[in-house]
Amino acid sequence: MAREKLILICQSGGEFVSNNDGSLQYSGGEAHAVDVNRGTRFDDLKSEIAELWNCDIKKMSIKYFLPSNKHTLITVSNDKDLQRLIDFYGNSVTADVYIVTRESVSQDVLDMNGSRTNQTVVAESANRISSTPAINFPATPAAASPVVNASPSFTASLAAAAAAAAATLVDDDNTNGTPTSIATPANSTSVIPVGTTDSFTIAADITAPCSPKMVTTSSSPVPAASADDAIFESVGQQKRTASWKFGVNGFSIVSVTDGVGQKICTVSQDTTSNGEDDAGVKKLITLWKNGITGVGQQFSGVHEFRDALRKYSIAHHFMYILKKNEASRATAKCRADGCTWRIHASWVPTTQTFTIKRMNKTHTCGGNIGKCSPSTKNWLASIIRDRLQDSPHYKPKDIADEICRDFGIELNYSQVWRGVENARAQLQGSYKDAYNQLPWFCEKIVETNPGSICNFTTKDDLSFQHLFLSFHASLFGFKNGCRPILFLDSTPLKSKYQEILLIAAAVDGEDSMFPVAFAIVDVENDASWHWFLVQLKSAVSTSRSITFVSDKEKGLKKSVSEIFENAHHGYSIRHLVDNFKKSLKGPYHGDGKSSLVGNLLGAAHSPRLDGFRKCIQRIKNVSSEAYDWVMQSDPECWANSLFKGEQYSQINLKIAETFNNWIVEVRELPIIQKIDAIRCKMMELIYERRVGASDWSTLLIPSKEERLKEEISKIDNFKVLFSSDTMFEVHDNSINVVNIDQWDCSCQGWRMTGLPCRHAIAVFNCIGRNLYDYCSRYFMTESFQLTYSESINPMPNIGKPASKDSSDKDQVHPPRTQRQPKPPPTQPKRKRSRSKGKVQRPLHCSKCKGEGHNRASCKEAS
């Protein structure tokens, strides 16, 4: 039997270690215990864990192993995943989960290779590899060499960087560009000597347990020991100052001036930094730094050369200008005036390669002019793409800060925003091109879900206008198991093209939302709603009189009455209350402002007209303005005592919020993936409710069965008087008349709820009738199961690209974005007006003391 509570042992700060059999084991870190149950929401759990570990909730993910599988980590990303975790460990007291944050090392970054097929070699100033077991950095001879005792995380990052650089270090004499490396056993340790006066030395034990190769170099003008040696370059032959900065959580290199005006580099490490994250960035920079090696280096084409040159300039902190930029040749020079750095490459037909012919490696400008080479959109998109894969909702400002920190490139918000769009297009496809897939997508829906309706329209310029979708499972469930009530609502998709989602939803026997149809339109107005209702009528095609419920402010009453014959239209109580609150301005009397909302709800829910009038009178006693607003809000469209359609006031649906929760994770995806995400949510909802109702054994659904039992318990001492075979008079504290033919009681409880009230139950006990025969069929278990009896079928190959040879009639362009009108100001601007006839004070000159001009226009000579 499953337990009611499961204790999650949340672990973070350690690392996963691979065993001999391929299974994973978590080692190190700390742990906290958190208990969960069936009612725990994923967002609440994630917030609690983020608070325990003091980490950013947007950069955190929760993972766990299956009970019998230690090879694959499972991610918890929503409420359903959390329930699966509880199910998998249903017979256990505890379960281990692992908290992974954005700051954790990313294997994708560590394994990243350059764009070239032949791996790059060391920068031009690297010396011959030495087997001396130390990493030394040159310092100024006149200054004492400082020694920094690095923290374990810092030494780990240096070790990983040194191991990563080993495969790319070569001898100066190695003109063929063949990589040279020194192999050392895994888990080897190099101890750096401390106290030397001719070099800048970091005293630390460097261990690289995951790298089979490690290399160390002796003291040299330009060391090649770490993955980002430019960080530690002192004033040498290229005269570069170390100004790299990795932010508050990473180490930074600052310039320190000694007594004789020379500079040495010191390393600072924050105690809370994560060296593993910086190690991945440093390795990437090392690859870029070694992307240009010198004369004779070959590339597959000019695009590969330009890409390597761009990354080379970013890693070496300088900007360049392409003097020649052609398909057969390219020449670049340092942007600084007078600098001699220059490179020229051209196409060699005999070898079919783009080869460097000339290169002057020396920067006479100092090599660091404060800003890096400007990034191209493809480069920026590739950098942002890696970050979006880890955190899909990364904010552009945070991305800009990271790029500035990691690469020294300053980007404004619009540049990063465009880069995010390009990166998302590479990850999920182009948002613009996705509209061309709509014809194929609609055909695919109807093909995989027969009986479904999917229509879309375009404007004269082929720009997207409307798309309507209703699945057969939804239409069948509404026709056969739901009350004839449809709630209408809308919500913005908050995407690039500002589409609006229109929704029509019913309620099942449990008063839960049952989605019937939805549409995506370019703009929400009377025309788009009218089109949606026309499509809805064609899809529903029922003879029942349907009650529509919507926000009064949307003004749908006229369209509903025009399109649906014999339909009723009511106002959403929730929206009505919200609008009522906004209209309240005072002054208030009697019970005060706090009583107004309660009286409005009382007027809406009161089954009798006298109860409605009492509540309205109370509102009038407090505020005459509030009373006037209520009486002008069409009470016949929201008050139970006046409304002629299907009763709904006890139902409080949040349709827009539900759909917003469904698409919150896919707002930035193209329209096809967005629609399919809604389809998946609807498919899961129907399946889960069908499975949940499969073992119900009562005639009524459980919630209605309990409510009926409560009414039965209240019929003691009721006196029933017979008037006829169908009319009865029931006495308790009051007298009520029951008509069993019309399913009506003067208390209005039977009509309001669809279940016999206590007075009707007392009558059935006297005449021996089965009370279940007088319950609404929509509350029967059979009807509920019929509502969810049909399934929404899966759709394969959603990411299929649009056919390039499609005809012009299949072309669909994105909707034209329309600037939303600004809301009216809360306080009207006061216009300055001048009264007619008012004499204005004349100007006086402070120089000549005259009138009619000032000092600036004075013509008197000084």
Brief sketch in words of this structure:
The protein is of the alpha+beta class.
Question: Secondary-structure blueprint of this entry?
Answer:
Elements: E1 6-12, E2 15-18, E3 24-27, E4 30-36, H1 42-53, E5 60-66, E6 69-76, H2 79-88, E7 94-101, H3 107-110, E8 136-137, E9 147-149, H4 152-166, E10 189-191, E11 200-203, E12 205-207, E13 252-257, E14 263-268, H5 275-289, E15 298-299, H6 302-316, E16 320-325, E17 329-334, E18 342-348, E19 353-360, H7 377-390, H8 396-407, H9 413-428, H10 438-448, E20 453-458, E21 464-470, H11 472-481, E22 485-492, E23 500-507, E24 513-521, H12 526-540, E25 547-550, H13 557-563, E26 568-571, H14 573-583, H15 596-605, H16 609-622, H17 624-631, H18 655-663, H19 671-693, H20 702-712, E27 719-722, E28 727-731, E29 735-739, E30 744-745, H21 749-753, H22 758-767, H23 781-787
Parallel strand pairs: 1-7, 9-11, 22-25, 25-26
Antiparallel strand pairs: 1-4, 2-3, 5-6, 5-7, 8-11, 10-12, 13-14, 15-19, 16-17, 17-18, 18-19, 20-21, 21-24, 22-23, 23-24, 27-28, 28-29, 29-30
Helix pairs in contact: 4-5, 5-6, 7-9, 8-9, 11-23, 14-15, 15-16, 16-17
- State the low-pLDDT regions, or none: 104-275, 801-807
Using the alpha-carbon principal axes, give the shape. Answer: globular
Report helical residue fraction.
25-40%
* Separate helix tally: 23
Radius of gyration of CA atoms, rounded to a whole number: 37 Å
Q: Look at the helices and sheets and give the structural class.
A: alpha+beta
The pLDDT mean sits at 75
Count of the domains: 7
- Count of individual beta strands: 30
First-residue to last-residue Cα separation: 104 Å
Largest sheet: 7 strands, mixed
Strand order of the largest sheet: 20-21-24-23-22-25-26
Q: What is the percentage of strand-forming residues?
A: 15-25%
GO molecular function: zinc ion binding
Pfam families: DBD_Tnp_Mut, MULE, PB1, SWIM
Keywords: Metal-binding, Zinc, Zinc-finger
Domain SWIM-type: 736-768
